[in-house]
Design a protein that fits this description.
Keywords: DNA-binding, Transcription, Transcription regulation. By secondary structure, the protein is α/β, with parallel strands linked by helices. It has 13 helices and 12 strands. It has helices spanning 4-11, 15-22, 30-43, 49-56, 70-75, 80-92, 109-119, 135-143, 166-179, 195-210, 227-238, 254-264, 298-313; strands at 61-67, 97-103, 124-127, 147-150, 160-164, 185-190, 220-223, 246-249, 274-279, 292-295, 320-323, 326-328. Strands 2-1-3-4-5-11 form a 6-stranded parallel beta sheet, with helices on both faces. Strands 7-6-8-9-10-12 form a 6-stranded mixed beta sheet, with helices on both faces.
Length: 339
């Protein structure tokens, strides 16, 4: 690999001039700058990023903070890995790296984030698992740390964010079920205070009101976001005198417990109970019938997160973007059973 000294010798100009030209300094003659850039490409020169980082007080590293949980650990998660992989690929094109900052479920999120910021190990942060009232947003804003959130909070803020279309999931799913003839439709929600749960609930209530459907609090179940949560949900629904004919799942892994419990009860998914999950998950391909869910382009989402945080780092307005999905309907939904 060509060094900056070798590049300067090739061009017969000083190292300082080469450095200023490569860094876009205004005091370099435009013709000289073009000569330097062309020669750098020709000779395969790559700047020493470590040295640059030390001089600039930067790390060339972006952190993504993810809260670990026993639910994810038990079931695995194929959401973040594709997103992180695509984000890293895009960041690498700009000489940045992405590191995962896993906050233990037993740790205080603000204490953890304060430690990360205090150590200066990243230039900017992507926050996930956004709460309705998320103190991390205020913490980073006050400290002047560039950040972007994967998710929205319930507090008005001018920060950059990208979020999945949770409202669209509920609206579209309920509309599909109502068109099939369903009137009593249940929904699962997270037990934690993540904001997506509040968005799902608010949209569910709003849809029922606008379509003059009765609201029954017994059909709103806050359960674990895993297979066990699915078992809990079906047990609660089976105990009702007036059972629902359809169920929306806030997390696709819940479907494993739902399918298992219904099978044990001698009931058929799509016939006795229609089921829709939020996101299509290849890990659930063994379910029969396959789960009706939304295809979400995760690689493109990861690239968008990378582009967004780079824009914030440059001091440009970051994105405020709803990330859509496309419904993939299967035999897990159908008309309600006849009385």
């Amino acid at each position: 690999m060509t060094s900056i000294r070798e590049l300067a010798m090739h061009l017969q100009i000083s190292i300082g001039t080469v450095s200023r030209a490569l860094n876009g300094k205004p005091d370099v003659n435009p013709v000289t700058r073009e000569r330097v850039i062309a020669a750098a490409h020709e000779l395969g020169y790559a700047p020493n990023q470590t040295g640059r980082a030390l001089r600039r007080g930067a790390t060339q590293t972006i952190g993504i903070m993810i809260e670990t949980s026993s639910a994810v650990e038990r079931n695995g998660d194929d959401f973040f890995l594709p997103v992180v992989d695509a984000a890293q690929t895009q960041l690498a094109r700009h000489a940045y790296d992405l590191v995962i900052l896993p906050c233990s479920s037993s740790d205080d999120v603000c204490s953890f984030l304060s430690r990360v910021v205090g150590r200066g190990i990243v230039d900017a942060i992507i926050l996930a698992d956004i709460r309705r009232q998320d103190p991390r947003i205020e913490l980073l804003s006050k400290k002047g740390i560039p950040f972007l959130t994967l998710g929205r909070s319930g507090v008005s803020s001018n920060h950059a964010w990208i979020d999945l279309d949770f409202e669209g999931f509920v609206e579209h799913s309920l509309a599909e079920l109502v068109a099939l003839g369903h009137r009593r439709i249940a929904i699962t929600l997270p037990q934690s205070d993540v904001n997506l749960g509040e968005m799902l609930y608010a949209t569910y209530q709003s849809f029922l009101t606008r379509h003059q459907l009765s609201y029954d609090p017994a059909l709103v179940m806050r359960v674990e976001q895993n297979e066990n949560g699915g078992s809990q949900a079906v047990a609660a629904l089976m105990a009702l005198d007036d059972r629902p004919t359809a169920l929306l799942l806030s997390y696709e892994a819940i479907a494993m417990g739902v399918y298992s419990e219904l099978r044990e009860a001698g009931l058929v998914v799509g016939q006795d109970l229609s089921v829709i999950g939020f996101r299509h998950n290849p890990q659930l391909r063994f379910l029969s019938p396959g789960l009706t869910a939304y295809e979400i382009p995760l690689a493109a989402l990861g690239q968008a997160l990378a582009d967004g945080i780079l824009a914030v780092l440059r001091g440009e307005p970051g994105p405020t973007l709803i990330w859509p999905g496309t419904l993939h309907a299967t035999a897990s939904i159908g008309p309600p059973p006849k009385p």
